[in-house]
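Ligand: calcium ion. Inputs:
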Amino acid sequence: MSVTNAEIAAIFNRIADLLEIQEENPFRIRAYRNAARTIQGLSHSLAEMVQAGEALEALPGIGKDLAAKIREIVTTGSLRKLRELEGAVPPELVELLQVPGLGPKRLKTLRDHLDIQGVADLEQAAREGLVRNLPGFGLKSEQNLLRELSELKRRTRRWLRAEVEEVAEQLVAHLRGVKGVKRVELAGSYRRHKETVGDLDVLAVASRGGAVMDAFAAFEAVERVVSKGSTRSQVVLRSGLQVDLRVVPQPSFGAAWHYFTGSKAHNIAVRTMGVQRGLKINEYGVFDRSGKRVAGRTEAEVYAQVDLPWIEPELRERRGELEAAAKGRLPRLVELKDLKGDLHCHTTESDGQDGLETMARAAKALGHRYLAVTEHSRHLGVARGLDPDRLLAHCEAIDRLNEELKGIRLLKGVEVDILEDGSLDMPDEVLARLDVVVGAIHFAFGLSRKKQTERVIRAMDNPHFNILAHPTARLIGRRRACNLDMEAIMDAALERGCHLELNAQPQRLDLNDLHCRMAKERGLKVVISTDAHSAGQLGYLRHGIGQARRGWLEKSDVLNTLPIAKLLRAMER
Ligand code: DGT
Ligand code: CA
Ligand code: CA
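Predicted complex:
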């Protein structure tokens, strides 16, 4: 499916909305709205016009500038101008614009009279009955707003990928057990290992479509069936997570898996490459000019039609993967089995749930060759942070345990607090006795970009500092990333022989994918660590690997793929 006219019109209307919020030039705003109206009224597809090389400028209200934007949307699936505008307007306001019936004008009234800054403010004001008396509003519109707000919250909720992993795997196993089912696979953002997913997309090949759909509706975790057909069904799980299942014929499987894996921008770019070769690529297959199916059974077949090798799902974000593939320069992405150990964990000595020995044996069972024990420092009182004496005593306990352990070595470490001025919450002479010093920000998240960046770089100035843990301190959906100049921090880390952590806790995944790529481009190695607070969490490395792969990291880009001796040498400063 190409970009539709309605989608293009929606983008233009959205730009107009954003410009209006910024109280931009009314003529520009009107130009976007007029163009959107023109496009909605067209009887032919703009995407086809672009693909056929037809001039768009002849359309009423579409000048050179808008024609170029339409071409950009059709060929890339998105528009840079829109991303810029969305970046310039506070995200809370952008979110408010998604409330049906709340255009820029009414939003302005709400902001001027009630200082509404986001969905939460609006919901509170409407609950308190403050909206009904505003000009242009009434009791009825206040009630409608409340209903739309709760619907919006439900619709736009995203899930940590990790929190839906178990049910996703159970569902796949359940469907694979159905008679006549040949294949079941997950697609969508889940397969691309995005840190959050909006819904689950499942694909099946089956000889009898009806039996799979019945089994899907009967899956234990299903709360309600939204729709049920012979090729597509949708359900909502008890958790509120929506799941789409599509049943496709075997010869289309590869094309469908490719299509429903996305991303949309990647799909559109691949389809455009097809058009250039006289091919039509969609979820049913690849078709030549005469309409004959020339590929579709496997993903590799689809890519081969546009002269590309198969591309890992984590790379399919339209971030240069097609160009890299065309040049034979795709990265060989790091895998879980490449990791030799974990450099960040806690035991009951600070705020972990399992003791030293349990953690060590669990790490060994996972095949780790080393595990750094990095308790909190004293400043973090809530986490039973260690003072120098307790830390030194803990180190002795680690030494004793190391004498008993075979096949794995515990490294003596600390997760030391970076204080507000960039100094470390542990005396240098204690840090000097450790194998690895992990530093982290746990408070004063709101410092200015300049101050926060200086704080972190100053911490790395300490010659004992090795690894910056969860660098931006974000918690997905709960706490924003600290305002940091990540490029400056990475350059500073390189100069000083420090490293940055990709924390594998599902709600952190910090560094994010783009940061990983930024590090790789500089030649700065990333450490993938679990920050495990229990033996079970040592398995979280897999979440970190997903993020690292989205950031194009290869084995050689990740520090803890090194065996112990090389690792220790690489950390020397
Ligand atoms: P999500 O669910 O928001 O985390 O993100 P996705 O990527 O799973 O998106 P979703 O569930 O809306 O659709 C699954 C895939 O289907 C998406 O990654 C690409 C494909 N797809 C959906 N809509 C379109 C479309 O309009 N055009 C193209 N080319 N592909 C689409
Ligand atoms: Ca999805
Ligand atoms: Ca979906």
